[in-house]
Amino acid sequence: MNSLAEENYLKAIYHLQRELNGDVSTNAIADRMETKPSSVTDMVQKLGEKGLVSYKRYKGTTLTDQGQKIAANVIRKHRLWEVFLVEKLKFHWDQVHDIAEQLEHVHSEELISRLDNFLGNPDFDPHGDPIPDKHGKMKRTEKKLLSELQKNQQGVCVGVKESSGEFLQYLDKKQISIGTKIRVLGKEFFDGSMVILVGKDQFFISKKIAENLYVQTS
Amino acid sequence: MNSLAEENYLKAIYHLQRELNGDVSTNAIADRMETKPSSVTDMVQKLGEKGLVSYKRYKGTTLTDQGQKIAANVIRKHRLWEVFLVEKLKFHWDQVHDIAEQLEHVHSEELISRLDNFLGNPDFDPHGDPIPDKHGKMKRTEKKLLSELQKNQQGVCVGVKESSGEFLQYLDKKQISIGTKIRVLGKEFFDGSMVILVGKDQFFISKKIAENLYVQTS
DNA sequence: TATCATATTTAGGCAAGGCTAAAAAAATAA
DNA sequence: TTATTTTTTTAGCCTTGCCTAAATATGATA
Fold first, then answer.
1. Which residues on A lie below 8 Å from B108 (Cβ)?
2. Domain containing A157: what range?
């Protein structure tokens, strides 16, 4: 059984490894965890001894298979709980992160398997992120950024890149959520801004918005 | 915000205060928490400084109003989660305690209020114990021990006094659960044993069983 | 009341996870 | 290549919550 702190480190390393695709530096982890580099060194050494990461002094850290499995499981729990909070308890998708952050550390395989079932074995969480299965594998979608679409192309919103409260609230105000169909009515070349159609409303969005929304085309 | 350890102490003191109706001794707490008396002393002193218990050296500990409120809230969460686990995730009532023990420490008023709602604002948990409302008040039922019933009286099972796995499994085997109607067909004077009717089955139970089952008569 | 057993507290330590300050390695610039 | 900056690690300390051993209060008994 791993401690809460250990699980959080593994999770952070898991995400960083994907973002940076490669070894993860001590500072990067410290940044993500909002802690000091010296604390990180202590912890990755401990995780190293436990065989959950491969750590070499001054070189960086990577998850071992075992560490990866544990991290994926924590993420699985986090995302399943998010689905529960949104689908069953009717939370808004921008309110669930902190609560899921706590729920993800409840230990019980039985619980999570029953929860998964209760929710209908979802493949994606309310932000469009894939939910790993019990072996740590997740569905890969061919998702693009909205900004990559051309005039008259359309796609279904499947997730966000940036997930700050402000951004999610913006989307909410515009009635954009997972599953929302979006059609590009126009696109300005010089600044990347767009006019899009959402339901019956059409409106203007900046390049910054378009670069932070994932859509599935095909 | 209180730490996990603090919440567990408050909860234990809350229960003990009711069981012993009065001040709670350091040893009693240590016993309940499966920890050493010296650790308890440390903690009650700390809780005392925080104003959550009133503690006097060598005299014992009681919850303050504030401490009581916090304890009741933890218990509320525990019992609501138990309802969720049994009603929604179809756990058996004898499997949910340890999981609820973890879930009860998730901090979010909003979460618990939505959960309460989702579950239909239940008044009792799957073991028949009352669920405190958000102000810490709980419904009082006039429940008796089965052993207090006389021949030909009947009652509805509303809870258990002892809740060990063995006992709950015994009840399960006999098809007794919350809501089960039980009629006393016979009662032996000299040892308190009974013959009872449950559904269409009648069988013998010892005094020990009868003294650990709560029924509601009226 | 004096004595003895029991309950409780105090003192001093330990492990987990943090932090700061200082040392050492690596990367970058001159 | 040498000097300088940045990154990382080490050393030493802090808090929380636990523990053991020793000291002290309380309460029961003679």
1. 98-99, 102
2. 143-216
